Amino acid sequence: MRTSAETRGGSRPGRRLPLRLIALILAAAGAAWILPGAAWADGTHGTHDSATGSGPLGAAIRLAVLLAVGTVAGAGVVRPLTGPPARRTATAVSIAGAVAATGALAVVDRPLLAIALGTLTLGVALSLGRTPPAFAGGVALCAAYAVMASDGRVTQAAIAVGAAVWLGASLPLLTTGSLPEGRRLAPWLAISGAASIVAGIVQADLPKTVAVAGLAITAPALLYRGGPRKAATVGMAGVVTAGIALTAVPGSEVLRPGVPVLHSVALGGDPVPVLLAPQRPGWNVVHTGDRQVSVGTDADRLTATARSPGATGTWGMVWLPPGPGRLWIRGGGRTASVRIDAGRGVATSPQIRTDGPECASAALGGLAAGGSPAPLRSCPAQALGTADAGALRAALGFIAGRGVRSVFLAGDGSPRSRAAATVIRDAAAGAGLTVAAEPGARRPIVVVSGWSAAESTLRDIAGGRVRGEGAYLAPWLLSAPLLAIPAGQVLPLRFSPRDPVPLKYAALLQERFHGAVPTKVGFDRWQEAQGRADTGPAKLYAASLVTFMPTRPGETHPHTGTSWLPGGTITVASGPLR
After folding, report:
1. Quick one: pLDDT at residue 216?
2. pLDDT in tens, 39-92
3. How many other C-beta atoms can be found within 10 angstroms of the C-beta atom of residue 377?
4. What is the DSSP string of 263-295?
């Protein structure tokens, strides 16, 4: 027979211990969902450059704030189901609220936000005895919690909300050890767990799933202690198993060596985009938009980013040792970091030192394709593509058709440029043209170098230091800074930058990296990721400048919209080339 205590909603003393063990596992599962992916928790949302803003102490405080806010938010959301909280539950929530409010003042870099977060958290904790204010405050706090823990990713925001509800629903069971309490909370645990599973599928870590499989199998055994008596007990065991299995869903993207890293950090003011490519041992390029900051793998030894010829924005170079680590970014008196993992292997940096921005632009194109990005196994300057080689032959045929007798070739030492030079020389020989050793007034200049050398060549032409009858650029030199230099340049392309698909790419690029201007190498990588390619005949295109003026070295300029040439347009200048 049941005792009077059981009839009133209690549970046998023998069951309190296993139930509390289960509750502890549930709470740990909730923490495991959210903590690995909370960019704010490890400082990637930006912090004060102080003892509490960065380093182990700051990280510990931020993690404590995240757990506390999530617990209070979840407790408020499940309040309509749990009824008036037990004294231990109310005390635990109040302590969590105090921890969140105090910790927020120490680590949130905007005082008004810190005060607002602390006030809301304490308000929910202190109103837990009344359902309407506790539930309304819990929903609002869950929204704030999703923003804190998501770093702008919708899937991570969903996981954060699920984890908050999971933590809040686990707390009454942990503090009371009551089986009826667990039965009432089981639906909330199941719903929040299912939501986090769906949101976490795209971020799943299969090795971790295997690692926790044993724990997931043994979890129901805790509930069976003393023998299963009710179907609800079996259902609860299933919910617990699902919850434990969810610890396999990390709260952030799995870092894969060779896959470029794209994040956004807060250093005061607007968020600063950060792109690292290729995330391999050796030299890597870092792009931070138009914001000049300092970057490095050692927080005490950072190097300032700077403009790179032929590219927009600011750039830096970092040497990555093998294995996991952090990329540190400092600006405006604040410091942030991003988790990285260069993997194992010999340090190799093909063309990164000379063609890093072009390589990063290709990496950004792959990331803009969405889905699971492929590793960046090579940079564009490492090889000449078949389509580009054909476009160069067609352009040389156009030049020969104008009655020109010779051309001047401007290249560099990259494998792609050397291969392109061979294509040009062979095509010139077949068309009866001479590749001259020096430029001349009636001699077209064919530019097959990378971005950096191409900018120098075009500025020399525009400044009259190099004489030539126009400049014919290789297709991969489709980049706004190069087209903005008034040097009479044209280039062969198999697509029009004003067509719907290139404009769609430009829009997606803006979503992933605000201020980025599309380039052909990025567009090619984006199409390749989707199994597409432009196969039509090449045409010559020229830049028509309206208000876009070329920058002087050291200057940057804003870029908005989806134009391939901000302040101007790129128009067709010939029919199909043969």
Report:
1. 38
2. 444 444 433 333 334 445 666 777 777 778 878 887 888 777 777 887 887 888
3. 9
4. EEEESSSSEEEEEEES-SSEEEEEE-TT---EE
CB hemisphere CA count around 412 (13 angstroms): 18
Each residue's pLDDT tens digit, 6-34: 333 444 444 444 444 444 444 444 444 44
Distance of CA 72 to the CA centre of its chain: 29
Q: Is residue 328 a contact partner of residue 337, using CB atoms and an 8 Å limit? A: yes
Is the pTM for the entire model greater than 0.70? no
As a residue count, the chain comes to 578
Tell me the H-state helices in 35-110: 55-77, 79-82, 87-107
For residues 283 and 547, what is the distance between their CA atoms, to the nearest angstrom? Answer: 37
Phi, psi values for residue 170, rounded to 5°? -75, -30
Peptide bond preceding 278: is omega within 30 degrees of 0, i.e. cis?
Answer: yes
Q: How far apart are CA 87 and CA 66, in angstroms?
A: 23
CA pseudo-torsion sign 398, 404, 406, 412: negative
Q: How many CB atoms lie within 10 A of CB 6?
A: 14
Residue type, position 174, single letter: L
**Looking at the predicted structure, is the pLDDT value of residue 313 above 80?**
yes
Chosen CATH of 383-494+535-572 out of 3.10.20.30, 3.40.50.970, 1.10.3430.10, 3.40.50.2300:
3.40.50.2300
The answer to whether residues 525 and 422 touch, using CB atoms and an 8 Å cutoff, is no
For residues 185 and 169, the answer to whether their CB atoms sit within 8 Å is yes
Here the tokens at position 169 are 């629903």
Backbone angles phi, psi at 356, to 5 degrees: -60, -50
Is residue 271 classed exposed, middle or buried when 0-12, 13-18 and 19+ CB atoms within 10 A define those classes?
middle
Task: State the pLDDT at residue 243.
Answer: 43
111 vs 402, higher pLDDT: 402
Angle at 500 between CA 498 and CA 504, to 5 degrees: 100
DSSP 475-513: GGG--HHHHTS-S-EEEEESS-TTSHHHHHHHHHHHHHS
With CA atoms as reference, report the closest residue to 334 among 49, 15, 13: 49
Q: Could you tell me where in the chain the CATH 3.40.50.2300 domains are found?
A: 383-494+535-572
Task: Give the model's confidence band at 547: pLDDT under 50 very low, under 70 low, under 90 confident, else very high.
Answer: very low
DSSP letter (8 states) at residue 463: T
| Tokens describing residue 453 | 């050398």
